[in-house]
């Protein structure tokens, strides 16, 4: 079974979603950890950011499980594939595999593409043959397949057959408008009369059946499924790859992920949501924090005695927990596990483990989230173990932003600190209040900690929580920092004031970086 | 086909959701308008608020389409139905129909209920017979039916048959733990061997298949479906009754609602979300505001010519609309379409259309995005048409954030403006820099524009773009504003400085609000 993820291509069509190239690399790494077989990274040539992604992927993305796929379209009408710059863009992406979208509804061929059915078949044949000849594995997405097949089965079938004859590894039947029900998918695959093991399924969620349609296709013999993390995608989204994979593995008994991967699911789902800057859906099947939550009441004691009677699967197998309601990491077990992952063993220290668990719970209730901020979590654990990690004490800071009469916008920050017994005052400008604060802080610390010059702020994310009172709500800031060796870490700060929240994340970022630099000395 | 809504009973199990009695009455009225056949209002006797709801419903709830249903359980073991106070509570609710939950998994009978299989059957028989004798229509929910049927088909079947023999109008097969897939539902109903027209289906969404499972049951002959508004419910929720109804009516061609009701769907869905105090899911199938949104660009011209090729149903039939998102790949066609959607026709003004298209492209290259900020886009178009929309000119502003020695964090802003020829200076504090700026701006404008007091900041979102230079990157701010009539709009601001970006979004927010308030005068 091929698990083909298109979070970074079709999933990026979701309204309001924008990934930076660094975001795309981070999402690809998470998907690879999760064990998908294919990662469709974008459309090189057509979208400049995607071109850049594939360029950087060549040196920065080491995939353990997944094959990287470049997406593109069949060649234009009236030119050869070899002469089509868009097809060249696919080759330039240097991926082992490409996925070509082909029109398979004659109405779209004639009205949107404005060419003939015969030329469209030629475009499919020529493009697949050419890319195969260049050593690529080729997948073909048959756009609008189901609608087209209903309208003119003969033509849609000829597109599928042409792609297979030309050497496509799988031809993917796309419910592009998302209007199908499972029974319609089953019927169409049966009527198509092509060996379903050569087919794939791509479902959109417009009838709220994307996951079910994908499962129905597999039950009809299809052996390639496309989906996106958390179902992100245009309109009501795509098939949620997490629910698809869990259903295949846990309900149909198919082994579709490498050993040990399924239990990473909840963590990967939440981390991708953080990167996409979309609040995780607490009610999402399998991975939502409330997916296995039970309102107490009637069955509370029965649930305690016999949880298997009340959960459709054991939450642990998908990395979730039964009682996590508000927090993502509420339990001692996960705190212990997470600490061990970061190199701090709390197994023999039950008192500290309890204290850390309680502190995490308290902070999460205030809006903190350590899901995507391992470095802040590690600082919290190590400080519970008695380590002194912040290399200074703060007296005060002040940040000023002015929009002047001449239109210039200037930011200036002053920090007053005690560093190794000495009082230090430093003032710096920046292109925003947080940048000014960062500069001033570095300036104040740099004489004592010259290593700081090697640390660079790589990303900065802001989320407003409980958004019913506008800017009065709590602000959560994530800061990603990178050192000269390319190692990066993320820290978190929360406060009703965005500047203070940023300050907290910045202080953690530098403290963590210095503690690691010291450790290396 | 019976459309049985349980928003107010099973749907209210959703984590964090609480309805007042007035809320429940309002939701019931909306569901009745929408045309469902049955409204399950709660559990009288067991839940005090539900007792009160049924009491008030007798005088305050006039239903046009729906039958009100009281939910309860079969009688306790070892007493007669007539002597069971919980059963009396059901009669006291004075509803034409009752729905009884019965255990149908022998393991739950023995381990949770702690009685025998035989006594459980007696409880079903006695309770149904008694309530029928009191003139009630009786439905029976077979809890944990599918898990029970897999474990011990004989026993689960005997519960179904006992309920039917005792006079239940429909016996509802419940996937209480939500672990089923459509094929499993189809198979179980076939193997059960009971006339499916006497059966109902109740699905939970734990495999992300609740809607599909419900449809599968109908395709297997079931003629009663349960669901909740927007899929609200415990864990990943229940079958979304809106998607179920739309699929039945638009995909399977069944008439399940009275004439004219389906087009109320989007409005009813959003109104119930408002009452439940849950942000409407913009990506919800059929009713989400993005359910028919298309990222324009490539296909915009084709969509304009032939929208039916790109929508699985006509959005108008479910009371929704097609939205064109203005994005990175925007062309003239989508700008024109979008303008028309906002009430500005650029069709006859090619020069202005070109200028706006170019301006949007240039701004998007700088990080602006109008796809979630219709109000800023409208201001841009109207200003290209020569309208003067910002009600002041800025001289300068200044924002100060201090973290003081005592730990207090304070924000203060001063703005200097020209308003209708007069120079105005105003200073205000806030709980963050943007809030302070918003307060100072309102203070400066309020004497000339008292309407401003009716505008409230409803949400504030921040996104850092091109995240390779940390806080030096460009910041995009989205501000959502709401006026006293509940009308809301979103504006955008972009700048490398988060405060200036916020300022721009705030100025647009107030300018747009004032222009609309003026238009109403």
UniProtKB/TrEMBL annotation, chains A, B:
Superkingdom, taxonomy of origin: Bacteria
EC top class, as a word: transferase
InterPro entries the record matches: 2-isopropylmalate_synth_dimer (IPR013709), AIPM/Hcit_synth_CS (IPR002034), Aldolase_TIM (IPR013785), Citramal_synthase (IPR005675), LeuA/HCS_post-cat (IPR054691), LeuA_allosteric_dom_sf (IPR036230), PYR_CT (IPR000891)
PROSITE patterns: AIPM_HOMOCIT_SYNTH_1, PYR_CT
Keyword vocabulary terms for this entry: Amino-acid biosynthesis, Branched-chain amino acid biosynthesis, Isoleucine biosynthesis, Transferase
Catalytic activity: pyruvate + acetyl-CoA + H2O = (3R)-citramalate + CoA + H(+)
GO annotation terms (biological process): isoleucine biosynthetic process; L-leucine biosynthetic process
Family (UniProt): Belongs to the alpha-IPM synthase/homocitrate synthase family.
Annotated protein name in UniProt: Citramalate synthase
Biological classification of the source: Bacteria, Bacillati, Actinomycetota, Actinomycetes, Micromonosporales
Gene behind the chain: leuA_2
């Amino acid at each position: 079974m091929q698990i083909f993820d298109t979070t970074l291509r079709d999933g990026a069509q979701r309204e309001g979603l924008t990934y930076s190239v660094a975001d795309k690399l981070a999402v690809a790494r998470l998907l690879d950890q999760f064990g998908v077989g294919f990662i469709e990274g974008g459309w090189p040539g057509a979208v400049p950011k995607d071109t850049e992604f594939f360029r950087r992927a060549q040196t920065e993305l080491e995939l353990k499980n997944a094959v990287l796929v470049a997406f593109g379209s069949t060649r234009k009408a009236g030119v050869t594939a070899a002469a089509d710059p868009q097809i060249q863009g696919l080759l330039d992406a240097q991926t082992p595999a490409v996925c070509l979208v082909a029109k398979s509804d004659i109405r779209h061929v004639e009205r949107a593409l404005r060419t003939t059915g015969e030329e469209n078949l030629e475009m499919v044949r020529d493009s697949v043959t050419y890319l195969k000849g260049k050593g690529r594995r080729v997948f073909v997405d048959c756009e609008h397949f189901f609608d087209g097949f209903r309208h003119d089965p003969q033509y849609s079938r000829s597109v599928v057959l042409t792609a297979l004859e030309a050497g496509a590894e799988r031809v993917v039947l796309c419910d592009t408008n998302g209007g199908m029900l499972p029974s319609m998918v089953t019927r169409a695959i049966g009527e198509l009369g092509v060996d379903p093991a050569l087919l794939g399924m791509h479902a959109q969620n417009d009838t709220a059946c994307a996951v079910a349609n994908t499962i129905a296709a597999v039950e009809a013999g299809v052996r390639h499924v496309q989906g996106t993390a958390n179902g992100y995608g245009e309109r009501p989204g795509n098939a949620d790859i997490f629910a698809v994979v869990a259903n295949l593995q846990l309900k149909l008994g198919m082994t579709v992920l490498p050993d040990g991967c399924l239990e990473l699911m909840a963590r990967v789902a939440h981390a991708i949501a953080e990167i996409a800057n979309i609040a995780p859906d607490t009610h999402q099947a399998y991975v939502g924090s409330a997916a296995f939550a039970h309102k107490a009441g009637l069955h509370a004691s029965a649930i305690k005695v016999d949880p298997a009677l009340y959960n459709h699967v054991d939450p642990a197998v998908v990395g979730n927990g039964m009682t996590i309601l508000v927090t993502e990491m509420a339990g001692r077990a996960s705190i212990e596990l997470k600490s061990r992952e970061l190199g701090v063993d709390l197994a023999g220290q039950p008192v500290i483990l309890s204290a850390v668990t309680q502190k995490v719970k308290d902070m999460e209730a205030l809006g903190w989230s350590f899901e995507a901020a391992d470095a802040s979590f590690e600082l919290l654990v190590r400080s519970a173990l008695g380590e002194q990690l912040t290399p200074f004490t703060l007296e005060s800071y002040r940040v000023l932003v002015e929009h002047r009469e001449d239109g210039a916008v200037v930011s200036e920050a002053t920090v007053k600190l005690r560093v190794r017994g000495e009082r230090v005052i430093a003032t710096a400008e920046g292109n925003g209040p947080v940048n000014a604060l960062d500069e001033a802080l570095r300036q104040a610390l740099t004489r004592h900690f010259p290593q700081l010059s090697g640390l660079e702020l790589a990303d900065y994310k802001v989320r407003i929580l409980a958004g019913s009172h506008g800017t009065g709500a709590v602000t959560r800031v994530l800061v990603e920092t990178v050192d000269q060796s390319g190692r990066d870490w993320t820290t978190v700060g929360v406060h009703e004031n965005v500047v203070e929240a940023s300050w907290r994340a910045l202080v953690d970022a530098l403290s963590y970086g210095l503690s690691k630099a010291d450790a290396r000395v």
